[in-house]
């Protein structure tokens, strides 16, 4: 079965600067194609979200931006987040009330997110088999699906190798 990976788990030693560069380049390209403006603040918020492969909360973004420009206020952040969400450049992880960058913003998709409970790393899949299976099962119950986002908690490859004893 094909693995429809949008954003994989990355090796901790990978050159993350390349991920950020790639994400910003993709964002610029996609905005240019759609004729929408990736303003400096929008690009900066996207860059901050891409700082790690982990979900980022809005107030952490606000803290970060305030240290750069004192005029940054919650509406500034929320407007930028709305834009980035609307353009598919980021996704919202509902269970954590936080945001992650999307590795493939050019192609609209429904995501399945794998969330590491130990280090917070997130990988994104978009597997049409999963999507249509859930849709069929829901239809069986007379339910019509508008949208689906799946959030799955567990351990990433890195943390599986060195699990922390909890408790
Ligand atoms: Zn990276
Ligand atoms: Zn995505
Ligand atoms: Zn992990």
UniProtKB/TrEMBL annotation:
Entry cofactors: Zn(2+)
GO terms of biological process kind: negative regulation of DNA-templated transcription; regulation of secondary metabolite biosynthetic process
Gene3D superfamilies, per the entry: 3.30.1490.190, Winged helix-like DNA-binding domain superfamily/Winged helix DNA-binding domain
The entry's keywords: DNA-binding, Metal-binding, Repressor, Transcription, Transcription regulation, Zinc
Chain positions recorded as Zn(2+) binding sites: 116, 119, 156, 159
The record's free-text note on cofactor binding: Binds 1 zinc ion per subunit.
GO molecular function term, any single one: zinc ion binding
Organism domain of life: Bacteria
A Gene Ontology term for the protein's cellular component: cytosol
InterPro entries tied to this protein: FUR, Fur_C, WH-like_DNA-bd_sf, WH_DNA-bd_sf
Pfam families from the UniProt entry: FUR
Family under the similarity heading: Belongs to the Fur family.
Entry protein name: Fur family zinc uptake transcriptional regulator
